[in-house]
Design brief:
Layout: H1 9-45, H2 47-61, H3 65-72, H4 80-91, H5 93-106, H6 110-117, H7 122-159, H8 170-179, H9 184-211
């Protein structure tokens, strides 16, 4: 069917899905690089590096992300890259603790100590020996970042603080479904599209975790 402005709903869903998935993939990639790097440094070195890093993370994670986005949207017109940049400042925090725990455990294993005794540089010990085993726990968490990114973008679009007005997005479709209860295809389309995308992303993430499991 069509929406309240006679635009084709299927076309809007396809374009909105493309934007949401691209946003989620870029945000996940950025979060993975920063989160894995920060967690690896804290877990491998420990001591003061770990202590100072944890205190900084506690302060940074205490900032309200959604409220910050809503406040900043009053000064800057929201856009794809603007939203991606703001979300990337906070989304990597969830990965740090996961990677940090794996590195704290892995740095005391015998093969890691043997690599150190042979004079292998720290960066090679991290990349070759500890990181492959830590990636299993990291890949387990990636589907949650993907689904969280899509849900956040949809919520911001629904509230009017996301993509520019008129942009094809799933959040706008949800908002139209709420405002046009006499057109149930809008609400049903938004619900089933989001449910299908989020479910498929979780299944794909689970398959990736099993594929890259070094113990398999």
């Amino acid at each position: 069917g069509t929406d309240d402005q006679a635009r084709d709903v299927l076309a809007r869903v396809l374009y909105g899905t493309r934007v949401s998935i691209l946003f989620a993939l870029l945000l996940t990639a950025i979060s993975t690089v920063i989160g894995v790097a920060a967690g690896a440094l804290q877990g491998y070195h420990g001591g003061w590096v770990d202590l100072i890093g944890q205190r900084l993370l506690e302060v940074w994670s205490g900032l309200p992300v959604l409220y910050l986005l809503i406040i900043l949207s009053g000064f800057v017109e929201p856009g794809f890259w603007w939203l991606l940049g703001i979300m990337a400042l906070f989304s990597w925090l969830a990965l740090v603790d996961v990677v940090r725990v794996e590195f704290l455990r892995g740095r005391n294993l015998e093969y890691v100590q043997a690599a150190r005794a042979l004079g292998l540089p720290d960066r090679l010990v991290i990349v070759r020996h500890i990181l492959p085993n830590a990636m299993n726990a990291t890949l387990t968490y990636l589907p949650f970042i993907l689904t969280g990114a899509i849900s956040t973008l949809t919520a911001l679009d629904f509230l009017g603080f996301g993509m520019p007005a008129g942009s094809a997005s799933l959040g706008e479709l949800v908002n139209q479904g709420k405002q046009n209860l006499q057109a149930p295809w809008l609400g049903f389309t938004a619900f089933f599209t989001l449910a299908l995308i989020l479910s498929l992303l979780v299944f794909i993430g689970d398959a990736l975790r099993e594929a890259f499991d070094p113990r398999a």
